[in-house]
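Take just one protein record:
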Amino acid sequence: MLIISRKFRPVNPILILLMVSVLLLPNCGFRLNRNQITLPENAQSISLQNIENRSFTPRLDILLKDFLINRFSRNAVKIQPAQLADLSLTIQIDSANYVRQDYALDNTTISYEFLFTIAAKLTVTHNDKNTDLIKNQPLSGIYSIKTESTDLSQTEIADGRVSALENLGDQVIQKLTQNF
């Protein structure tokens, strides 16, 4: 008679609990919401018609609207006219500028930091309740470029403004997804 013996090693109970949790959590409706946009007040749609550019830099309103439409669309948020939307966004771009400042000085090189800032105000209105969820909230989009050059090219300036504007768009989305 041939006897085969199998040795069992004890399994860590935490590992078993973790495996069971991973299997059960998706079935109970739990999901990670790391990059998904969830609008306040259970809203399903948003209007982006009121983006006003009061800065002296042209097209910032158009670029911001395009950025927000792209981000909302990727996250299945419906963008509709104000009459049909649950929420309306009003964004007023007040200023767009950049400044150069000394970044690092050592014996061999001088470096500079160019800091781009776009300042705006955000108002979010719940259309059904005709109430402001956020009223004239100041926001700033910021981006910096570090270089040894004393000036930036037109391309670098345009790229810096776009990056600051995208940061502003991220700030708008962050304000929308905070718990009210």
Residues 29-34 have pLDDT under 50 and may be disordered. Strands lie at 45-53, 78-79, 87-105, 110-126, 131-147. The CA atoms of residues 7 and 53 lie 73 Å apart. The first strand starts at residue 45 and ends at 53.
